[in-house]
Amino acid sequence: MTQVVSPDTSNAMPPAEHEPLSVRALPVIKHAILIVLLVLFLMPLVWLLITAFKPYSELFVSPPSILPKAPTLVNFADGWAIGGGKGIGDSLIVSTISTVLCLLLGYPAAHALARHFPPHGQLSFTILSLRMMPPIVPVIGFYLMFQELSLFDTYTGLIIVYTFMNLPLVIWLLAEFIRQIPKTYEEAARIDGAPWYRLFLDVLLPLSAPAILTAGILAMIFAWNEFLFALVLTGENVITLPKALASFFLFQQPNWGQLGAIGIVAIAPLLVVSYYMQRFLIRSFSAGNGGR
Question: How confident is the model at residue 290, as a pLDDT?
Answer without folding.
Answer: 46
